[in-house]
Design goal:
- The structure is a single chain.
- The protein has about 150 residues and is mainly α.
- It has one domain.
- Helices cover about 50% and strands about 5% of the residues.
- The protein is globular and about 45 Å long.
Length: about 150
């Protein structure tokens, strides 16, 4: 899908697609199947990646859940590895370095934004804790060099 986005919509769309996959890993969303990705034709001719929708943390409900689509030949929702990013880049015909920069940006921003997000009181403490722990574990696995 990233290769098609790069060819039809441009590099920015392919990188946005990748960014969304990284985000789904952080939140533990195993439900991002093809049906959850779509294109929009604002001018009726030129495709662009549609706005994000249907993002849900599935791991708190299904602890053994995995990615809905293969991500760099892996369906693991617990980390993003350099090898995974390289395989994704190779398959999509993209350079891996800019994609790894997206991963590093996610490590810096997603945990911080989640911790500071005020409407979290709407979640049960159990659900909030499960999502928080998963986000921190993914960030730690990437930042520790294990990834």
């Amino acid at each position: 899908m990233a290769a098609v986005l790069a060819a039809e919509c441009g590099l920015e769309a392919a990188e946005d697609f990748f960014r969304r996959i990284v985000f789904t890993t952080f939140i533990g969303n195993g439900d991002m199947h093809l049906k959850n990705w779509s294109l929009i034709y604002r001018d009726r001719r030129t495709p662009s990646l549609a706005p994000a929708y249907d993002y849900v943390a599935t791991l708190p409900y299904i602890p053994t859940d995995s990615h809905g689509l293969s991500f760099g030949k892996s369906k693991d929702l617990h980390t993003v590895t350099r090898d995974q990013v390289r395989r994704f880049a190779d398959t999509a015909g993209l350079a891996p370095a800019p994609l790894w920069s997206i991963v590093e940006e996610a490590v810096e921003t997603i945990p911080a934004v989640w911790r500071d997000h005020t409407p979290r009181g709407q979640l049960s403490a159990e659900l909030d804790d499960a999502i928080s722990q998963h986000i921190e574990a993914v960030a730690e696995s990437i930042g520790s060099g294990r990834a």
